[in-house]
Every structure is written in structure tokens, then in C-alpha cells.
Amino acid sequence: MSDSTTASASPVVLEAWFDLQCPDCFAALDDVRALREQYGDRLDVQLRHFPLEKHKHAYAAAQAAEEAVEQGKGWPYVEALLARTAELGDRGESVLLDVAKELGLDAEEFDTALIDGRHLLTVDADEAEGKAIKVTGTPTYVIDGRRLDGGKSQEGLRERITEIADRLLNG
Predict the structure, then answer these.
(1) Continuous segment of H or E residues that includes residue 46
(2) Tens-digit pLDDT profile for residues 146-156
(3) How many CA atoms lie within 13 A of 68 on its CB side?
(4) What is the pLDDT of residues 29-73, one digit of tens each?
(5) Residue 152: left if φ>0, alpha if ψ -120 to 50, beta else—which one?
(6) pTM here?
(7) Of 124, 156, 121, nearest to 141 (Cα)?
(8) Which of 5, 23, 60, 152 lies most in the core, judged by the most C-beta atoms within 10 Å?
(9) Burial class of residue 75, CB neighbours in 10 A (0-12, 13-18, 19+)
């Protein structure tokens, strides 16, 4: 998922492989926000879906995030949903619609999208690609072909990403 208006012109792409029911991915948002603030349009942060089996509602959450992209609020939806990972675990998929309503999105269309499965292929493709590049946990980042695993520890990841991004941007 990339709802950046300058994605095609961005010289550096950071893929963030997230499970939208993962508390560690919520914690990682601070790093993602800081990187987006630091680099602006020079860094295209792309959310990639990697729903983990242990999170019952992560697959539906990934589909909902894709619907949010369609409706123009991908990252705001992802951030709002990640802030409610515990609630998603407790209450289930009704939380997906609640978040959509709170952001002023068409919740009825969200419900329809989850029923008709229009975003299944996108989520499945991300998951398959993640497995192919050996993503095993979330969050995981890929920048300049390098996989940085934040599933066990996020310590030092922002610094490593910054180091690689600076090298790429400065030639």
C-alpha cells in the first residue's frame, strides 16, 4: 500500500511489512512517522501486508486497509487501526468498520469490500512476496534490497534505515 502522491518520483523506497493486529507494528509507527517527517517525499514508505496466523483478524484488517487506500485515507486508517490492536483482538472485525466511520470513510463500502473480497489478491500477493523474501515476523523492513527484521527487536532499526537512506540519497 502506498498512497504517496510522489511514489513514482521517490528515489528511495522503504517497504514496511506489517500485520495490522500486531502490537509491535503499532510501536513501530513512531519510527515510520519519524522517517516520513525526516525525509518527506524523498522516501516512499510502502506498507506491505504480512498477516500472521496467530492474529485472527489481521487478514481482514489488511483488506480493510486496502479499501481505505481506495477511499483516499490509507495511512490514517492504518495508524488508527494499529492503535486499537487489543480491541481488534477482543471485538473482532466490527472494529474495522468503526475505524472507517471515525475517519469519515464509507463504512458500508468497507463491509461490502470485506464480503466480496475485492482486495484479496493484493493481500495474498504481498503475503506470498513476503514469504519469498523470507519475512517471518512483523514489523520487517526492506530498503535497498536489505531485509531488516523488527519482529524480535526494533532497537537500532531507525538508525540503520536512516544510514541506508542517506547513502542512497547522497549517491
Answers:
(1) strand 43-49
(2) 999 876 667 78
(3) 28
(4) 999 999 999 999 999 999 999 999 999 999 999 999 999 999 999
(5) alpha
(6) 0.90
(7) 156
(8) 60
(9) buried
